[in-house]
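In the current project phase, we have settled on a layout for protein records. One protein thus recorded is set out beneath this paragraph:
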Amino acid sequence: MTKRFQVVGIGNAMVDVLSHCDDDFLVTNSVEKGIMQLIDMDRAVDLYSRVGPSKEISGGSAANTIAGIAQLKGRTAYVGKVKDDQLGAIFAHDLRAQGAVYETVLAPKGSDAETGRCIVLVTPDGERSMNTYLGWSEYLGPNDIDAAMMAEAEWIFLEGYRFDGPESHAAFAKAIAATRGAGGRVSITLSDPFCIERHREAFAKMLREDVDLLFANRAEIKSMYQTEDFDAALSAAAADVAVVVCTDSENGAYIIQGGDRWHIPAVPTTVVDATGAGDLFAGAFLWGLTTGYELETCGRMACLAASEVISHIGARPEADLAALFRQHGLL
């Protein structure tokens, strides 16, 4: 019997606020150039009030993945926490407009925290200075997980960044139990080496016991298995997880399943903004997998999707991904 959803994603719910400024604005507002800084709500509200004209685009790593699947007409849904405020409405609208189901209960208007946002300041040299306020996204908990929705998923996709939340581990455990109990499978992205450092034992336990498909990049997988030997890290991951998919920047990606291993070359492109490359890679791969394509084809779709998203500003696809796949003979 066909399940309602091919993939349900669980993770951060953020809005990216993209604005252009000069270097003097950064200095005047004490923004360190070219890095990502975590900021509190007061700082987020103040900085948001100071930026010039901005482009507001729904973000969040796993949410970008789900948006990619939705753009490909996949049956998909997302679970991530926002507030009943202006940016929360933007987040919900953008996901639903793509075709994804988004039913997470909004935090009430009167609550202290606000919808998470990343204020991205772009200077004339193209450098991006990011100021991230996690907001309500940080407080995703088991009460936000609809077990019936998880049971209707062929796959769930978990965002490693969410391991930092006070109740996120419990939320993931509930989602995994409901999905696996109904015959579904579990995928996860490691997200960030620093996140792995903070939660290595929890990641390791989940990989060994619950995960069917692992997404990571070179730095993350080496951090996870505490080795500088990339091949050794891949082998260690393959011993824990049935399918390992690891990106390696301009070197493409590697897929390992049992004794089989594929190298997928990167698609050459001019890099405008690398944000979202791994997110859209995972989205295209999961769409291909749940639509019935072989792993190698899924990898080629994923590299194409990643090349598309890094060719422009913003972490959501602008081109028709299905048309792109057809152009390259993959559909």
